[in-house]
Task: inverse folding
């Protein structure tokens, strides 16, 4: 992903009820704004993979709805799953790619910081404590883990830890 200085701001900025991060404004690929963490978080919970090419075909209102829809109960997760696969079919004519749902995701473990995150944190001289990890929101923990994965462009990791109040300076 690269920063596009000519890009218009995301439709998610300042929308009440969406946990959208400033560092996400840098997520651009082929002049398309990438899928925000809040939607990626919900897609993982609903077991649907969404490609950027599919996402880019959705109307802004549909993308905002995906960010706002609750997934706090199993019925809501099921509805999210159905809504997302219907959007993919409507806009692409393709069947959605299903994902296995992780019933014990690493971001949800408040008793231990994942090793992958500890390693990435040490690269920027961040000594992340368990108390700091616990104080983060679910989506913040999810985002940090996504940003430190191998193969992911990691330039936004330091921006995220700073935005989350973990790195001062």
Result:
């Amino acid at each position: 992903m690269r920063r596009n200085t000519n890009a218009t701001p995301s439709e998610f900025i300042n929308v009440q009820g969406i946990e959208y991060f400033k560092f996400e404004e840098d997520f651009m690929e082929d002049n398309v704004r990438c899928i925000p963490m809040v939607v990626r978080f919900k897609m993982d919970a609903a077991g649907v993979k969404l490609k950027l090419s599919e996402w880019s075909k959705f109307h802004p209102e549909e993308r905002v709805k995906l960010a706002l829809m609750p997934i706090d109960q199993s019925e809501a997760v099921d509805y999210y799953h159905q809504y997302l696969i219907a959007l993919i079919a409507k806009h692409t004519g393709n069947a959605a790619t299903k994902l296995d749902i992780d019933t014990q995701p690493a971001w949800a473990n408040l008793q231990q910081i994942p090793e992958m995150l500890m390693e990435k944190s040490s690269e920027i001289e961040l000594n992340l404590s368990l108390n700091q990890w616990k104080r983060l929101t679910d989506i913040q923990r999810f985002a940090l883990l996504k940003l430190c994965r191998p193969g992911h462009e990691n330039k936004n990791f330091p921006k995220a830890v700073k935005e989350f109040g973990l790195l001062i300076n």
Remarks:
- The beta strands are 28-29, 32-33, 48-49, 97-98.
- The CA atoms of residues 110 and 131 lie 9 Å apart.
- The longest helix spans residues 74-92.
- DSSP finds eight helices and four strands in the chain.
